[in-house]
């Protein structure tokens, strides 16, 4: 050591390892805090998704039940109207043929046809009793046709109700792959979007949908 060189400060030499240990402890503490916050966010996302799936399932089941009940009510009403028409002397084949044609005018009158219900209007009633019965039958036919039109417009059959209910239910139980990828990027921050889309089953650059159960499974695996 030269005469002009100042001696090293013993206190500074001793403090260097201490400062390094302090920095290491602070860094480890920050890492632990970050990991805890990340796990908390994952738990919140998982619980939120679970709640959404449960609510969508409940809404879908309720909608299906309501549609099935409406379809059964319309079917029962049509059955009762058919029985009434049978009592009035109108056969099932004639009812079916009439409903297939749907020949009802806007004023609620039967359109001119060669059916038994229309003949009294063309030639005049030979017997008052028979004419009265045919007119009543024609009015009932109009009612049956109206119920049939209502059934087609607003009251699907049970099988149609199931199909109609499955469409909104399916959309509620699925998530666009872009949204699912964004969620998993937050949960699995160290993984690329390409690998995440592959794990979701998304192939190609286009947009698709994934089931929420699959998304929930991947989130739980990441936790």
From TrEMBL:
Source organism, top-level taxon: Eukaryota
Feature: compositional bias, Basic and acidic residues: 23-36
Region annotation Disordered: where it falls in the sequence: 1-43
Protein name from the UniProt record: BZIP domain-containing protein
């Amino acid at each position: 050591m030269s005469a002009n060189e100042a001696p090293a400060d013993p206190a500074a030499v001793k403090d260097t390892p201490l400062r390094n240990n302090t920095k290491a402890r602070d860094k480890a503490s920050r890492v632990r805090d970050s990991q805890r916050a990340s796990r908390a966010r994952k738990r919140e996302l998982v619980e939120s998704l679970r709640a959404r799936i449960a609510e969508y399932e409940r809404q879908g089941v309720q909608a299906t039940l309501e549609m099935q009940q409406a379809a059964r009510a319309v079917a029962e009403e049509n059955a009762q109207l058919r029985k009434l028409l049978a009592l009035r002397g109108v056969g099932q084949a004639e009812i079916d043929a009439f409903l297939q044609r749907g020949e009802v005018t806007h004023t609620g009158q039967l359109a001119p046809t060669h059916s038994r219900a229309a003949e009294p209007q063309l030639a005049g009633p030979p017997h008052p009793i028979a004419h009265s019965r045919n007119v009543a039958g024609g009015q009932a036919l109009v009612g049956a046709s109206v119920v049939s039109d209502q059934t087609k417009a607003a009251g699907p059959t049970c099988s149609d109700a199931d199909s109609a209910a499955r469409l909104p239910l399916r959309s509620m139980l699925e998530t666009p792959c872009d949204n699912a990828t964004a969620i998993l990027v937050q949960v699995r921050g160290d993984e690329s979007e390409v690998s995440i889309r592959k794990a979701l089953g998304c192939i190609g650059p286009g947009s698709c949908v994934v089931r929420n159960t699959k998304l929930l499974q991947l989130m739980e695996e990441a936790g």
